[in-house]
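Why run this: before we spend reagent on co-expression, it is cheaper to look at a predicted model of the complex and decide which construct boundaries make sense. The entries below are exactly what would go into the expression plan.
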Amino acid sequence: MHIPDGYLGPHTYIAFWLIMIPIWYHTGTKLTAELKSRQAPLLALAAAFSFVIMMFNVPIPGGSTGHAVGGGIIAIVIGPWASLIAISVTLVLQALIFGDGGITAIATNCFNMGVVVSFVAYYTYKLISGNSAITSSTRIIAAAIAGWISMTLASLCAGFELGIQPILEHTAEGVPLYMPYPLSVTVPAMVLEHALAFSILEAVITAIIFAYIQRTDTSVFYGEKSEMEMN
Amino acid sequence: MDKLTRNLAIGLVVLMIFVPIGLIASGTAYGEWESNELKDKIGYVPQGFEELADLWHAPMKDYNIPNGPSFEDSEPVASAGYILSAVIGMIVGGGFLYFIGKKVAKD
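The model came back. Tokens follow.
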């Protein structure tokens, strides 16, 4: 889902910079106001985790590959705002140092994997969890579903952004300038490979880590402040 | 460091060691093809794509040491480069956020 340079035309990638700069700014202000010293290690671990988990490429039939993002569990544990920052830091490093994802596409990729994954995962988890106890097994299922839906929706966004290129960017003769495939190809391709493979991997990872933290120390979960205040 | 943070950090180190497993998948992700792969698919390289694709030359492209061999050419070297990339990515990203986090934290 790391869109490289060359696939998105300027209309799209500039639009996403214009969307992401205020989001990053707002998040920075929000975290500066709310972040506790105790949360810094988790924020750091979150960035490191998303970096390493994205390196586990998984092959699927047809020759394509993909990977989990880790954003589901990160958003549930540290909250969607901190999560979008942790994943953004990872995506910037991946683009600058390792050439994974384009420079022009950094904002777009941060929108898909940072904003969409984090917020969809967090609110799906909260919605399904409802008033269940923090230690309830309902929450493990909620975490798994959050992981699956968040990745699948992010892939839908990426598929859409790629697929609108032939409409937005073409020569006078109609030849595509950037991503050549239309929405009817890119959306099913992106969504199906995620829904049937990578999002399932994300769901499993989200559920396993969630269950582990649930058994170890529920006070770290974002929004579960009662026990945290005592430390 | 509390027990949970320590155990999560240990888990990350384990993941880091096993990261070369991710190199076994040799295909290219959908929509991330290089220009030659794109040309094979559609018969031409889109003009705008050609202008943008080489905009940036990443020092450790494909999570490898600079100008390092591909996994097909040298599994040990590519694996070592991949682990080194994980170490760098995790330390730089995690370190940056740890530093910023501690700096802005209110307590």
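Chain B touches chain A through 65 residues (CB under 8 Å). The mean pLDDT of chain B is 95. Bring this page to Monday's planning discussion.
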